[in-house]
Every structure is written in structure tokens, then in C-alpha cells.
Specification:
CATH class: Alpha Beta
Oligomer: single chain
Strand content: 5-15%
Number of strands: 9
CATH topology: TIM Barrel
Number of helices: 16
Helix content: 40-55%
Bound molecules: coproporphyrinogen III
Order of helices and strands: HHHHEHEEHHEHHHEHEHEHEHHEH
CATH architecture: Alpha-Beta Barrel
Distance between the termini: 28 Å
Length: 350
């Protein structure tokens, strides 16, 4: 963990936790906290017409990012954008079909990769960075601002298939049948993602999160090669430019051994846990090494009532006295009642 001396009191509590302190109260934010469960989001989304218009119009992105902060007073705002902005800015066509998720022009081989841009399209990235600085300007001082990107493995799964698939077989197969292509794709994403995160940090993000939502489909050796190693490279490239950059990794579905190795090799300041994580095991292995973020089951938040009370109680108990950031184990679902979110926050804040 980092030397606490100059980064403790007076900082937003989420940053205190990332710096290895145990804050006076547990910081809380929610994956996908700006989204369809909020009527004010649905209203603005209808006005914008389309999800990508929200992402690339700085005034809209700023407004949507701030909606859950105004309503709930979370301890962190997360930039409203998407992990697929990176392949989009590399030249892939991208659309979001209602109810079907993302569609990209597939990049299944080296020829398709060579047809993409070498660097990120500034027209797209600058709009995102303008949103970052606009959010920072409007955010209360005590609220941390998180930037993010997808991890190369997860972004590559969408690029190879051109869409999400149940077990990401197309990308796993490509990594086996054409490792030279797959390595080149991952390298391109490492480079672009590091640049993108440096831009976000310079524009005013206090920390960044790397989402590896599909890490859980990899076997241990593939996890080392396609999840840990690219994240390690991104962390190194970002810290070469922004030495004190705070970085959280979220390798969804990683085992305890995988999480432990990831933290040791990458030097991230925090690790995001999905709802299946063995909390006590994680705390024992990693509690002294980095902040632990998570891990309420999003379904407990839909259920509400005693199921929610018990789940939050057990979670808080397991992480009491640790550098813990309360969060969900994955994104909040659109059908979640707002009253349950309010209840969860009241339970965490006591
Ligand atoms: C895999 C992934 C994606 N995007 C993201 C991930 C990693 C996290 C995870 O595992 O969920 C990350 C993401 N996507 C979005 C954010 C915004 C910040 C936040 O509030 O958390 C973040 C951090 C907005 C979004 N990204 C998307 C929406 C819904 C768009 C809409 O219809 O309004 C939002 C609010 C669309 C999206 N974007 C993606 C998919 C598969 C989908 C379709 C599924 C869905 O609709 O939930 C790719």
C-alpha cells in the first residue's frame, strides 16, 4: 500500500480507501448508477434519442453522470460513457439496439485489425474528456470522480464477435487458433486504453477503473496472459505519465488465486469483487494490500426486504475495519426499485 502521509484526511473518503486508509465511514457508489432504473435518465435518454448521443454530447454526459449524485449523494460519480467507445474510436462501427445490446463491425482477424486506425479518433475522445472536466467542475469536492475503460480482454471479446455472446467463445477460439492476431489486438487495446485513461486523469478523474467483465471465462493460464498481463501493462503505461494514478481493477468471475495474483503483479490500488467472491478469503489474502470494492448481489437489491438487510449486514460485517468501498457485485438492473437503493444506502451509512 502507498505511504499515507500526504493523502489522508480532507480527501474524498473513496480516495482515502484507495490510498489504504480506513475512512470514518464506508464510501459507496454503484456500478451503472446512472441508467435506466432512474426516471430522469430515461427522460434524457428519450430526448437524446440514442445512447451514443448521450455519451458523445458533453452536456448530456455531464448531466446523466450527476443524476445519481444529486438523488443519492454517492461518494463517487462515474463518468457516463461505455467501454466500447475505445473500439469505436479505433474505427469500428458501433450501435446499440434496444434490448439486444451492442453491435460492432467484427474484427475477427489480422486483416480486419490492420484496417482499423492506429490511434484513437480525437473527435470522439475529446468529447468524452470534455465531459470529464465538465463533471469535475460541477461535482462537490467530497465526491470522487471515476473514469474507466474496459480491459483489453473484455473489449476484444466484443470486437472479435461483433457482439456479446454467452461465453465469449469466438474470442477464446481466436486466441487459440490465431494467437499472433489476438496478441496484436490486445496490444493495440493496451496502448489505446492507457492513453485514454491518462487523458481522463488529466481532465480531472481522481481514479480510474478497468472493467474486465469477462475475465471469468478464462482458465488460469489464459487469465494470466489475457487479463492480468494487459492490465499490468496499462497500469505501468498510465503510471509512467501520471505516477500517482489510482487504479481499480474489476476482473469479474476471477478466483481468489486469480485476484491475489492480479493485485501482486499489477499493483492496482483496489480490486472490484463480484457477488460470488469469497469475502473473508479475499480480505485475508488482500486486505492489507489494496482496497476491496463490492460486492452486493444486484438481485438482493431487487429483492429488498429482509433479503437486502441480511445481505448488506453480512457484507458490512465481513469488511468491517478494512479499506472497503461498498458497491454492487455487478451493474444495477433497470427493474430495481429506487426505494431499495435508498434502503441500501441507509443500511450502509447506519
Ligand atoms: C461490458 C460493459 C459494457 N459497458 C460497460 C461494461 C463493463 C461493466 C459491465 O460488465 O457491465 C461499462 C459501462 N457502461 C455504462 C457505464 C456508465 C457509468 C455507470 O453509471 O456505471 C459503464 C461504466 C453505461 C451503459 N452502457 C449501456 C447502457 C444502457 C444503454 C441504454 O439503453 O440506455 C448504459 C447506461 C449499454 C451496454 N454497454 C455494454 C453492454 C453489454 C450494454 C448493453 C446491456 C445493457 O443495456 O445494459 C458494454
Amino acid at each position: 500500500m502507498k505511504a499515507p502521509a500526504d493523502r489522508g484526511d480532507g480527501q474524498p473518503i473513496l480516495l482515502q480507501a484507495l490510498d489504504g486508509h480506513v475512512p470514518d465511514r464506508t464510501p459507496i457508489w454503484m456500478m451503472r448508477q446512472a441508467g435506466r432504473y432512474l426516471p430522469e435518465y430515461r427522460e434524457l435518454r428519450a430526448r437524446a434519442g440514442d445512447f451514443l448521443t448521450l455519451c458523445y454530447t458533453p452536456d448530456f454526459a455531464v448531466e446523466v453522470t450527476l443524476q445519481p449524485i444529486r438523488r443519492f449523494g454517492f461518494d463517487a460519480a462515474i463518468l457516463f460513457s461505455d467501454i466500447l467507445v475505445v473500439p469505436h474510436a479505433l474505427g469500428c462501427d458501433l450501435t446499440f439496439e434496444a434490448g439486444e445490446g451492442p453491435r460492432l463491425s467484427p474484427v475477427p482477424d489480422l486483416a480486419a485489425l490492420k484496417a482499423l486506425r492506429g490511434d484513437l479518433d480525437a473527435d470522439k475522445v475529446d468529447r468524452v474528456l470534455e465531459a470529464v472536466s465538465g463533471i469535475r467542475a460541477k461535482l462537490p469536492r467530497e465526491t470522487a470522480l471515476l473514469g474507466f475503460c474496459g480491459a483489453p480482454w473484455t473489449v476484444a471479446t466484443y470486437m472479435v464477435a461483433g457482439r456479446g455472446t454467452p461465453d465469449q467463445a469466438p474470442a477464446r477460439l481466436a486466441s487459440l487458433t490465431d494467437p499472433a492476431f489476438f496478441e496484436a489486438l490486445i496490444d493495440r487495446l493496451v496502448e489505446a486504453s492507457a492513453r485514454y485513461l491518462v487523458g481522463q486523469l488529466r481532465a480531472g478523474a481522481d481514479a480510474v477503473q478497468i472493467f474486465d467483465s469477462w475475465a471469468g471465462v478464462l482458465d488460469p493460464e489464459a487469465f494470466r496472459r489475457w487479463s492480468i498481463e494487459p492490465i499490468r501493462q496499462i497500469v505501468a503505461l498510465v503510471r509512467a505519465e501520471v505516477p500517482d494514478a489510482r487504479i481499480i481493477a474489476f476482473p469479474k468471475g476471477a478466483t481468489l488465486a486469480g485476484l491475489t495474483e492480479l493485485v501482486a503483479r499489477t499493483g492496482v490500488n483496489g480490486v472490484g469483487l463480484d457477488w460470488t467472491a469469497d469475502r473473508r478469503g479475499v480480505r485475508y489474502a488482500l486486505g492489507a494490500k489494496c482496497a476491496l470494492q463490492g460486492n452486493l448481489d444486484p438481485l438482493a437489491l431487487i429483492a429488498g426486504g429482509t433479503a437486502l438487510e441480511e445481505a448488506v449486514g453480512a457484507l458490512m460485517q465481513d469488511f468491517r475495519g478494512a479499506a472497503h468501498i461498498f458497491n454492487l457485485g455487478h451493474g444495477i438492473r433497470p427493474e430495481t426499485p429506487i426505494a431499495h437503493v435508498e434502503k441500501m444506502i441507509a443500511l450502509v451509512r447506519g
